[in-house]
Design goal:
By secondary structure, the protein is mostly helical. 79% of the residues lie in helices and 0% in strands.
C-alpha cells in the first residue's frame, strides 16, 4: 500500500485561479462590451463609429502598457499587482454606467486597458511559464478553454441584465461583480512562482536521481530582452502576433459575411456557436500538441487549419455543413493567440526574461487591434464584399508559416553565439 496519496501540485491551483481570473476579465468584461453598444449609442444619440472610438483608444493604451506590464510582472508582488489591475479594468467598466457623455468612454478606456493588459494578456502566460515545465501547452490550453466556457455562460446573463435593468445599471453590476469574485481568488490561489511555496515547477519532480543543480531546472535560462530585440526571431514573433490577431479579428465580420451570402441571422448565430466550440477545442488541442510534438510543428499545423477554413469561406459558401466546419477551424485562430503565441515565446527565447519579451512582442497584438478591425470594414465599404479581406487573411496565414520557419532557423544562430545562457 502507498503510505500517502500523492498531493495535487500547487501549480494546478494557480491554473484554476488564473482560469477564473482571465475568464472573467475576458468573458465578463472585454467580450461583453459589444452587447452594450446599441443601447449606449441610441440613448446618447451618437453614432456607433463615434462610440467605438474608445476601443481604438484602449488599443493604443494597450500598446503603450504592454512592455511596462511585463516589467511590472517581473518586479512587483503578483497578488497586489493583479488586485490593482482587476480594480482598474473592472472598475473602469463599472464606471461606464455612470457616464452620460461619450467622453466618459474615451477617458475610462485608458484604465480599462491598463488593467486589462495585465489581467487578460500578460499574467496567464507569465505565471504558467513559471509554474509548469513540461505541460505549459496543456496549461495554456486549459486556461484558454475555460475563458471560452466562462464567456459562454456569462454572455447570456449580461444580455438578460441589459434587457431587464438597462445598460447603465448592467455596467455597474458586471464590473463590481467581477471585482468581488476575482480579488479573493487572487489572494487564495495565485502565487508568483513555485519558490514562494517552497516547490519546483510541475513535472520537474518527476525526474529521478536528479541533482539539486538540475532540480533548479532551466527556468532562468534563455535570452535577455536586450539581445532578443536585436534578433530575427523576435521580429518574426512580433509579426506572428500581428498576423494571428488580425486574422482572428475577422470573427466580428463573419455574421455580415454570411448575410451577404444569403444566410439567415439564425444560421449566423449557429455558426458563431461552432466558432466558440472551435476556440474551446483549439485551446485544448493546440496546447496539448505543443507539449507532445513541439511548438514549431503545432504552429504550422494550426496555420494550415486556418488556411482550410478560409478556402471554404472563399469557394464553398453554398454548402452549410462546410461553413460550420470552417467556423470550428476558424475558432482555432482565436485559440492560437492564447496558446501558440506564448509557447512560441518560451521556445524561442527561454525563461530568463520571458515576461518582458512576451509583453514586448505582444505589441503586435495591440497594433493589430488598431488596424485590422477598421481595415476589414473599409475594404467591405470599398468592394461591397469580404473577398479581398479573405485573400488578405490567406496571405497572412502563409506569412505566419514563413515567420515560424525563419524564427526557428535563426534561433540556432543565437544559441551558437552564446546568447542563450
Amino acid at each position: 500500500m502507498e503510505k500517502t496519496r500523492k498531493k495535487i501540485h500547487y501549480a494546478w491551483w494557480v491554473l484554476l485561479g488564473l482560469s477564473i481570473m482571465v475568464g472573467l476579465g475576458k468573458g465578463a468584461v472585454n467580450n461583453s462590451a459589444g452587447l452594450f453598444l446599441p443601447g449606449v449609442s441610441s440613448d446618447l444619440g451618437i453614432g456607433m463609429g463615434q462610440l467605438t472610438l474608445y476601443l481604438s483608444i484602449s488599443s493604443v493604451a494597450t500598446m503603450i502598457m504592454l512592455p511596462i506590464g511585463g516589467k511590472m510582472m517581473a518586479k512587483y508582488d503578483t497578488k497586489y499587482l493583479l488586485t490593482a489591475a482587476i480594480i482598474l479594468q473592472a472598475g473602469a467598466f463599472a464606471g461606464f454606467g455612470l457616464m452620460t457623455s461619450v467622453w466618459g468612454w474615451y477617458i475610462l478606456a485608458i484604465p480599462l486597458a491598463v488593467g486589462g493588459v495585465i489581467i487578460t494578456v500578460i499574467a496567464g502566460p507569465v505565471l504558467i511559464n513559471s509554474w509548469f515545465k513540461k505541460s505549459k501547452g496543456l496549461a495554456l490550453g486549459v486556461m484558454g478553454a475555460s475563458v471560452g466556457v466562462i464567456g459562454a455562460i456569462v454572455q447570456p446573463i449580461v444580455a438578460n441584465l441589459i434587457a431587464t435593468r438597462g445598460w447603465s445599471t448592467s455596467y455597474i453590476i458586471v464590473g463590481l461583480a467581477v471585482i468581488i469574485l476575482v480579488v479573493p481568488i487572487i489572494f487564495l490561489l495565485i502565487r508568483k512562482s513555485p519558490e514562494e511555496k517552497g516547490l519546483i515547477p510541475y513535472d520537474t519532480e518527476k525526474r529521478k536521481n536528479t541533482s539539486d543543480e538540475n532540480k533548479i531546472d532551466d527556468s532562468k535560462h534563455g535570452i535577455t530582452l536586450k539581445d532578443a530585440k536585436k534578433s530575427i526571431p523576435f521580429y518574426m514573433l512580433l509579426l506572428f502576433f500581428f498576423f494571428i490577431t488580425s486574422i482572428a479579428s475577422f470573427t466580428i465580420h463573419i455574421p455580415t459575411f454570411l448575410k451577404n451570402k444569403g444566410y439567415s441571422v439564425e444560421f449566423a448565430g449557429n455558426l458563431m456557436a461552432f466558432y466558440m466550440l472551435g476556440v474551446l477545442l483549439g485551446a485544448l488541442l493546440l496546447g496539448y500538441l505543443s507539449d507532445k510534438i513541439g511548438t514549431k510543428t503545432t504552429s504550422i499545423l494550426g496555420m494550415a487549419l486556418g488556411i482550410v477554413s478560409v478556402l471554404i469561406l472563399l469557394f464553398f459558401t453554398d454548402f452549410p455543413l462546410l461553413l460550420n466546419i470552417a467556423g470550428i477551424l476558424f475558432g482555432f485562430m482565436g485559440a492560437a493567440i492564447g496558446t501558440l503565441a506564448p509557447m512560441l515565446t518560451t521556445t524561442l527565447f527561454g525563461n530568463k526574461e520571458y515576461s518582458q519579451i512576451y509583453a514586448t512582442a505582444s505589441m503586435g497584438l495591440a497594433v493589430a487591434g488598431i488596424i485590422a478591425l477598421p481595415a476589414y470594414g473599409f475594404m467591405y465599404d470599398a468592394f461591397g464584399s469580404y473577398t479581398i479581406s479573405l485573400y488578405a487573411i490567406l496571405i497572412m496565414l502563409f506569412l505566419n508559416i514563413v515567420a515560424i520557419l525563419v524564427a526557428f532557423k535563426s534561433k540556432q544562430q543565437l544559441v551558437d553565439k552564446g546568447l542563450w545562457n
